[in-house]
């Protein structure tokens, strides 16, 4: 929910091209401006690194959810087939883990996928009743927006606007939440 | 830099499309009124669905006796149709997951519709599971529920229970993968929406997506892991479906070659179905610049490869049946090819082994008429493959006094027709209300394709996009 903190004044630089905005991020940062976020209609590789966002830990969540699926499957098969109602089918022991590999695999995948997607939605603050914080409606179409939180910058508004324009912004708008 | 451009490779998107063009071209059919062609197709599908649903209802009301089953052939069209639909459902995940891992960028134009096809095909497959239970209200007995429903738990050693886990996991994960892929595009439509109702509905389904760099980074990471999970998952599903047969002791079923052979066959038939749907979509929605001959050719190559694997599997099976020295096994295969069901066997051989080999010719591979026809032929062949495996293996029992034939009744046929009504109704709803091409992903491949090519091919002069960033200005 990192970018849903809006109760300030933002400068929104609108760019026309993904390569331009990627280079602009570096230029604007070099000029000493703190960038709030960049919004784009599609993923731009290297943008999160350029912005200095920490690497996502979604992988750890996925692994732990997967592990919980494996454990669930092992416990479920062990409890039902060995304790609650032991059964010998096809001459196999009542608990024969090899036969449960499909169950274990499927539950691992299921838990991992659902858990990870859930974590993704929660960590980004996404949900059916969430009102999106759009700095410019065109960023889901063909424009790229770089937003600057003025309250977090010491450089003046006019100077930042100049820096944005120099970096290739086609327009610079003001957005107040 | 993020955009690697090949000077020799033909563009993925033709016509010199800009980002705004992509949004406009794809969103048009979602926002506009339904076309005449769509309305006619949808009406026919719904009529077929209603007729089929009535027949399915009667199947349940009267019992499975309305089918042509007998005590020797206890599985016939129901399981044939089930395996056929599940197989078709494999192409979507192959395109969206395996081709993502292999970084095949052409997948971007077809993955959305292929994944939708996967989901609807799995729904159709599941409907046959419910149908062949005869008493669908007891379907929950297949789930591992506490034994208040009876005295026992489900048998976790049974491939049929593995199937319950595999199919339901596959359906859930495919649905989630597909929906996550839809989020950015739903947000695009939300932000373009003029009416309050569509802004509200697309707004709710886009879950408040705003495309921040942080969200995109996590999104890409999540897609990669989902692809990594879906790849073994899709292979496991048809492997487990094949276990339904392979773990039994019926000659013709008890074969270790089944898992890879079923998976190859599944991808084979799935791609054929994707071809059929895509060839219609690209014309009806005027998407020839996005789904190009290159895409069709690439998919035909996959069809040739998997068709050849299937062909090798047929021959291997036959060879092993003789080489094993097991007389029941040898008999089962000789009976397939020369017995009372010889016509089904040779229909399968012709459609699946011979017809995809025609795609070695570049002219045929790039011909729309040939592709469409051969794709239909492949799916007929793949239906016969399952019919041959199931019915011809069963109709000759160990006891000759039990030998029987299977004759389909009106309800066998109508229940199959039901699944077509269901499939096309769902697919047409999807194609009207959701973007059929993944806009966000197609926008990422535009640059890698249109530059450095002669303007006659790409529609953009050499270096124009680099020299003039304003190229991406909105279209009027």
UniProtKB/TrEMBL annotation, chain A:
Name of the featured protein: DUF3341 domain-containing protein
Keyword Membrane: yes
Coiled coil regions, renumbered to chain: none
Domain of life of the source: Bacteria
Spans through the membrane: 58-79, 99-122
Keyword Transferase (UniProt): no
Pfam families listed in its UniProt record: ActD (PF11821)
PANTHER family found in the cross-reference section: LIPOPROTEIN-RELATED, QUINOL:CYTOCHROME C OXIDOREDUCTASE MEMBRANE PROTEIN
Organism phylogeny: Bacteria, Pseudomonadati, Bacteroidota, Cytophagia, Cytophagales
Keywords assigned: Membrane, Transmembrane, Transmembrane helix
Automatic annotation (TrEMBL), chain B:
GO cellular component terms attached to this protein's record: plasma membrane
Similarity remark: Belongs to the NrfD family.
Sorted UniProt keywords: Cell membrane, Membrane, Transmembrane, Transmembrane helix
Domain of life: Bacteria
InterPro entries: NrfD-like
Signal sequence range: none
Pfam families in the record: NrfD (PF03916)
Localization, UniProt: Cell membrane
Name of the protein: Polysulfide reductase NrfD
Gene: nrfD
Transmembrane feature ranges: 37-61, 81-102, 114-140, 160-182, 221-241, 261-281, 302-323, 343-360, 372-396, 416-437
Lineage, uppermost ranks: Bacteria, Pseudomonadati, Bacteroidota, Cytophagia, Cytophagales
Predominant localisation class: membrane
Membrane topology term: Multi-pass membrane protein
PANTHER family cross-referenced by the UniProt entry: POLYSULPHIDE REDUCTASE NRFD, PTHR43044
């Amino acid at each position: 929910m990192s970018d849903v903190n809006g109760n300030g004044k933002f400068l929104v630089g609108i760019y026309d091209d993904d390569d331009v905005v990627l280079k602009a991020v570096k230029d604007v940062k070099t000029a000493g401006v703190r960038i709030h976020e960049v919004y784009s209609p599609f993923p731009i590789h290297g943008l999160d690194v350029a912005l200095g966002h920490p690497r996502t830990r979604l992988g750890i969540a996925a692994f732990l959810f997967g592990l919980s699926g494996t454990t669930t499957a092992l416990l479920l098969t062990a409890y039902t087939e060995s304790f609650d109602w032991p059964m010998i089918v096809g001459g196999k022991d009542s608990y024969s883990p090899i036969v449960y590999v499909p169950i274990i695999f499927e539950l691992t995948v299921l838990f991992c996928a659902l858990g990870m997607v859930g974590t993704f939605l929660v960590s980004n603050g996404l949900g059916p009743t969430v009102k999106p914080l759009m700095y410019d409606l065109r960023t889901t179409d063909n424009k790229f927006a770089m937003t600057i939180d003025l309250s977090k910058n010491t450089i003046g508004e006019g100077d930042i606007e100049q820096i944005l324009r120099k970096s290739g912004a086609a327009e610079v708008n003001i957005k107040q939440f | 830099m993020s955009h690697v451009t090949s000077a020799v490779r033909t563009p993925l998107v033709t016509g010199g499309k800009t980002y705004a063009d992509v949004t406009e071209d794809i969103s048009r059919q979602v926002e506009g009124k339904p076309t005449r062609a769509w309305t006619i197709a949808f009406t026919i599908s719904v009529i077929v669905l209603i007729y089929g649903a009535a027949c399915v209802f009667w199947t349940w009301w009267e019992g499975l006796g309305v089918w042509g089953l007998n005590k020797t052939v206890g599985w016939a069209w129901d399981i044939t149709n089930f395996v056929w639909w599940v197989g078709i459902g494999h192409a979507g995940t192959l395109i969206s997951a395996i081709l993502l891992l292999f970084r095949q960028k052409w997948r971007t134009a077809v993955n959305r519709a292929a994944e939708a096809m996967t989901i609807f095909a799995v729904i159709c497959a599941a409907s046959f599971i419910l149908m062949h239970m005869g008493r669908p209200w007891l379907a929950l007995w297949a789930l591992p529920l506490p034994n208040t429903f009876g005295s026992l738990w489900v048998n976790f050693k049974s491939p049929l229970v593995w199937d319950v886990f595999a199919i339901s996991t596959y359906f859930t994960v495919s649905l989630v993968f597909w929906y996550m892929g839809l989020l950015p595009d739903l947000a695009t439509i939300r932000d373009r929406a003029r009416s309050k109702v569509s802004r509200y509905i697309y707004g709710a389904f886009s879950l408040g997506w705003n495309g921040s760099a942080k969200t995109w980074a996590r999104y890409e990471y999540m897609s990669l892991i989902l692809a990594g999970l879906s790849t073994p998952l899709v292979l496991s599903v048809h492997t487990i479906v094949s276990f339904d047969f392979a773990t039994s002791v019926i000659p013709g079923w008890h074969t270790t070659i089944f898992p890879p052979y079923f998976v190859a066959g599944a991808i084979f038939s799935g791609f054929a179905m994707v071809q059929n749907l895509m060839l219609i979509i690209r014309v009806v929605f005027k998407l020839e610049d996005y789904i190009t001959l290159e895409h069709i050719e690439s998919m035909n190559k996959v069809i040739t490869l998997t068709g050849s694997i299937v062909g090798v599997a047929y021959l291997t099976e036959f060879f092993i049946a003789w080489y094993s020295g097991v007389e029941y096994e040898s008999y089962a295969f000789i009976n397939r090819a020369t017995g009372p069901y010889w016509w089904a066997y040779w229909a399968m051989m012709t459609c699946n082994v011979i017809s995809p080999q025609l795609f070695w010719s570049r002219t045929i591979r790039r011909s729309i008429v040939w592709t469409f026809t051969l794709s239909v032929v492949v799916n007929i062949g793949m239906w016969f493959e399952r019919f041959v495996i199931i019915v011809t293996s069963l109709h000759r029992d160990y006891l000759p006094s039990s030998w029987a034939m299977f004759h389909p009744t009106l309800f066998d046929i109508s229940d199959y027709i039901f699944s077509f009504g269901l499939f096309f109704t769902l697919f047409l709803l999807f194609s009207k209300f959701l973007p059929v091409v993944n806009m966000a992903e197609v926008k990422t491949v535009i640059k890698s394709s249109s530059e450095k090519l002669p303007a006659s091919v790409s529609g953009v002069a050499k270096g124009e996009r680099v020299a003039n960033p304003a190229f991406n200005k909105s279209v009027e």
